[in-house]
């Protein structure tokens, strides 16, 4: 949200709450309206572009203003292959999160980006969320040319975009470009927000046919 709109929004909320207070509305109702308005603003300006938005320009605009939140901004720098900035953002994340479990998913993502499978392998056991842990385990199996095991492993992933993205990678390695394009399109169709943005940027480089009509 641009600064002027932030200021205008908070002024409007303040005036609304002030109006209700001065005109005898109950405290519970006044607080409820204020909290409800704040929640609506959070959904529209944060949660929606993060997790639900389909328009890439809006997601990119959202990511560009997240420099103070390296965990989010990392998606932008990795998706756009900004080498120097990616190292800086990773350092920020590592300094901010000290425990192995908190660092693990970022180390795995950065390892895949740098094609350093040893770093991915070290990080995987510490990833807390099962879908993400299985996602990176499947990538490791694929990199080790164990495509049968990789296909079997990804079946346990609940997120459809993850399964389709992994299948696209497996088909690329197998030389089956048409199948890879099909799975890439399925992955994009099933994804929203930041995940959709990252996938689209990746396929622009490696499978442009998959995104040319999106």
What can you tell me about this protein's structure?
The protein has 214 residues and is mainly alpha-helical. Helix content is 79%, strand content 0%. It has 13 helices and no strands. The protein has helices spanning 3-22, 27-52, 56-64, 70-79, 83-96, 100-113, 117-123, 130-143, 147-154, 160-174, 177-190, 193-206, 208-211. Helix 6 (100-113) runs parallel beside helix 8 (130-143). It starts with a helix and ends with a helix. The mean pLDDT is 89.
The end-to-end distance, rounded to whole angstroms, is 26 Å
| Overall mean confidence score, pLDDT | 89
Largest sheet: none
Q: Which spans of ≥5 residues are poorly predicted at pLDDT below 50? A: none
Strand proportion, as a percent range, falls in under 5%
The computed structural class is mainly alpha
For the CA atoms, what is the radius of gyration?
Answer: 21 Å
Query: What is the tally of beta strands?
Result: 0
Helix run count: 13
Order of helices and strands: HHHHHHHHHHHHH
Note the overall shape. Answer: globular
Summarize the amount of helix as a percent range.
Answer: over 70%
Name some characteristics of this structure.
mainly alpha, about 210 residues
Brief rundown of the structure:
By secondary structure, this protein is an all-alpha fold. It has helices at residues 3-22, 27-52, 56-64, 70-79, 83-96, 100-113, 117-123, 130-143, 147-154, 160-174, 177-190, 193-206, 208-211.
């Amino acid at each position: 949200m641009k600064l002027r709109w932030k200021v205008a929004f908070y002024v409007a909320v303040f005036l609304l709450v002030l109006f209700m207070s001065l005109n005898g509305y109950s405290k519970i109702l006044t607080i409820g309206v204020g909290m409800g308005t704040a929640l609506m603003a959070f959904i529209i300006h944060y949660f929606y572009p993060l997790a639900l938005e389909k328009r890439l320009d809006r997601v990119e605009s959202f990511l560009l203003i997240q420099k103070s939140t390296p965990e989010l901004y990392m998606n932008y720098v990795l998706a756009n292959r900004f080498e120097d900035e990616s190292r800086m953002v990773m350092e920020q994340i590592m300094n901010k999160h000290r425990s192995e479990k908190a660092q693990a998913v970022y180390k795995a993502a950065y390892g895949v980006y740098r094609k350093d499978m040893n770093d991915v392998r070290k990080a995987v056991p510490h990833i807390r969320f099962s879908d993400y842990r299985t996602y990176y385990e499947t990538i490791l199996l694929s990199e080790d040319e164990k495509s049968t095991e990789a296909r079997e492993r990804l079946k346990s992933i609940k997120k459809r975009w993850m399964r389709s993205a992994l299948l696209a990678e497996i088909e690329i390695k197998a030389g089956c470009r048409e199948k890879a394009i099909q799975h890439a399109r399925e992955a994009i169709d099933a994804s929203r927000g930041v995940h959709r943005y990252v996938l689209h940027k990746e396929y622009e480089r490696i499978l442009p046919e998959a995104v040319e009509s999106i």
